Amino acid sequence: LGKKADSRSLSLAHCDLTATDLLELGTLLQFLPQVEEMDVSWNELIGGCLAALTTHLRHVAGVRTLRLCSCRLNADDIAALGMVAALPRLCVLDVSCNDELTQEVDSGGFRELAASLSHATSLTSLRLQACGLTADSLDALGTNIYFFQVLPSLTTLMELDVSSNKEAGGVVHLLVSALPLMQMRRLPLNSCYLTAAVCRRGCLSSLRALDLSYNSSVGDDGWCALFAAGGLGSLEDVDVSLRPSASAPCSAWLPALLRALPQTPALARLAMQRWTAGSQERQQLSYCLRKRSVLLEWDPVSNQESPEESQPEE
């Protein structure tokens, strides 16, 4: 059943599932006790009907991964996700690309999500990419002690993906403050319109991968502050690339990066695509990274624009 010939995987993404299909699928779960991965993403016709599936989740208590991307989930669907409590081994929950959730904040979308998550004690990865998170919605939820208060209870959480939420940058510090700091490994924040003030807080010292790409709003002062603030010791992968249509000089903050490199002994990859620099600066950074076998992803010199010709990122 599904696209993978594997009794442990139930992959029905991009299958044009309907509410009727979801109901029939739910009744079949009792015959699939070995399923560990369930993916019904990109089926926009099942929005509002998720309860037809979740009421049967008790039959597949071994599920470790549940993906529900771009299913037009609403507050009722998220309330139905309260059944994740019946999945004691659930590690990955992905509800990305469901921007209707934030459109229904007042009717309880994220409030219900927080209530559901409080029971997901084995969760290691929570993905909320492109869910239309806004500063107002998250701040309101924080004030009402729902979403932010449940995060500390997720003691096994290692990844929180809030990338591509263009208005969430202003409350990133609230998210970070609420996270279980010691075991966080990945915090994708690309395309979140981060500010310099957020970057001054530095990184979580436990992070291994930090994606800050497509955040030109940080500005030179922000990048300088980020590398000066510390907390980089565990980082293995850092991405500060600009969008493909943009370019900008990095001369103002490159010295701060160079000073921070000795404090990043685990660094294995640094992506700086679309940033421009003079030949001497490029050579200096390349030399520092080459002697440590760090992969540097930077546009070839022939594609670099001079600072005078660089285009600001929108």
From TrEMBL:
InterPro entries (UniProt xref): Leu-rich_rpt (IPR001611), LRC31 (IPR042419), LRR_dom_sf (IPR032675)
Segments forming a coiled coil: none
Pfam families in the cross-refs: LRR_6 (PF13516)
Protein's name in the database: Leucine rich repeat containing 31
Organism: Amphilophus citrinellus (Midas cichlid)
